[in-house]
């Protein structure tokens, strides 16, 4: 990593910190940050369509540039093949922001099922699905520092949507966003724990309200910008603990967040369910994974989240099993 690259990245971070933060959607927030970076002239900001798999169709400066600058690439890749071509053209380095979710598509979140699986299994990719502009801002700033100031290898990926949010994060919240999980209300203890990522967090929040209003069930709500990062860290900790059975156990952010309670955990994503299934081996409580295709073709609605929570509680003997059927009838679910 050249000193000039690290210096450029620090100037980018300073420019973004000096700008008025945008408390809007992830898409609008990143677009606003891109404008600031363009004005600073310290970063490559590329606004492109990644429809082709041919490297030759990418902007020509990939081939002619010798001095690296921080890279923010705004694109619309629907498939893993398109994203693979893009990441290869950028030497698997940079912050890649995909706005495909904001466009009409037959696929969940606008992406073919192979794309999120490719992201989850790519060792150099750190994928995020931010729910709010504040989350997206924290992730982009962290990517600039990690990749270009600290010089770590790899690339960040952000799935962007245009649903507005008024979330405000404190310092601890911004740190926990990067780790993959934080509570939307600190200090709140619930009968069930609801986890949501990206746009699905909105349905999770509505489900928590319905559980309390209709069923007298209190729910914790957690935003999980990266199920994959949580699962990778948990897997690494589990591996280390197996290899060092006599040493003090390594912990992980997922375990620390869910410690101290056996309340069921319902984890929701707008991507297909396998993205959330990654957490299953590391959750020490009843666990239900919900994604596109789990209970309906699209992302699970608030009503299916409520029913899934009630079913998990009924399986544990914490509520009457009849409430599950009553909820199915009340919400007209088949």
Automatic annotation (TrEMBL):
Domain Transketolase-like C-terminal: 180-291
A Gene Ontology molecular function term of the record: pyruvate dehydrogenase (acetyl-transferring) activity
Enzyme Commission code(s) on record: 1.2.4.1
Ranges in a coiled coil: none
Keywords, sorted A to Z: Oxidoreductase, Pyruvate
Family matches, as InterPro entries: PDH/Transketolase (IPR051157), Transketo_C/PFOR_II (IPR009014), Transketolase-like_C_2 (IPR055152)
This protein's name: Pyruvate dehydrogenase E1 component
Source species of the chain: Pseudomonas antarctica
The encoding gene: aceE_3
């Amino acid at each position: 990593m050249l000193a000039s690259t690290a210096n450029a990245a620090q100037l980018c971070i300073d420019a973004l910190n000096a700008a008025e933060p945008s408390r809007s959607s992830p898409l609008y927030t990143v677009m606003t940050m891109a404008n600031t970076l363009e004005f600073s002239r310290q970063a490559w900001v590329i606004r492109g369509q990644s429809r082709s798999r041919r490297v030759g169709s990418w902007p020509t400066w990939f081939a002619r540039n010798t001095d690296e600058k921080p890279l923010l690439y705004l694109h619309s890749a629907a498939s893993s093949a398109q994203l693979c071509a893009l990441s290869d053209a950028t030497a698997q380095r940079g912050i890649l922001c995909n706005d495909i979710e904001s466009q009409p598509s037959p696929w969940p979140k606008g992406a073919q099922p192979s794309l999120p699986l490719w992201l989850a299994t790519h060792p150099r990719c750190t994928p995020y699905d931010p729910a709010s502009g504040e989350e997206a801002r924290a992730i982009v700033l962290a990517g600039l520092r990690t990749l270009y100031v600290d010089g770590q290898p790899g690339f960040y990926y952000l799935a962007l949507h245009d649903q507005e949010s008024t979330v405000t994060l404190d310092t601890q919240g911004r740190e926990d966003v990067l780790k993959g999980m934080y509570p939307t209300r600190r200090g709140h203890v619930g009968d069930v724990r609801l986890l949501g990522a990206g746009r699905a967090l909105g349905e999770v929040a509505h489900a928590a309200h319905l559980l309390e209003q209709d069923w007298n069930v209190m729910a914790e709500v957690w935003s999980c910008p990266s199920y994959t990062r949580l699962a990778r860290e948990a897997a690494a900790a589990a591996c280390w603990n197996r290899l060092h059975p006599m040493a003090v156990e390594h912990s992980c952010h997922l375990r620390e967040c869910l410690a101290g309670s056996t309340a069921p955990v319902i984890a929701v994503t707008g991507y297909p369910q396998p993205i959330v299934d990654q957490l299953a081996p590391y959750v020490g409580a009843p666990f239900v994974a919900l994604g596109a295709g789990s209970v309906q073709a699209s992302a699970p609605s608030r009503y299916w989240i409520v029913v899934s929570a009630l079913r998990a509680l009924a399986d544990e003997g914490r509520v009457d099993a009849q409430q599950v059927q009553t909820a199915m009838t009340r919400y007209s679910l088949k």
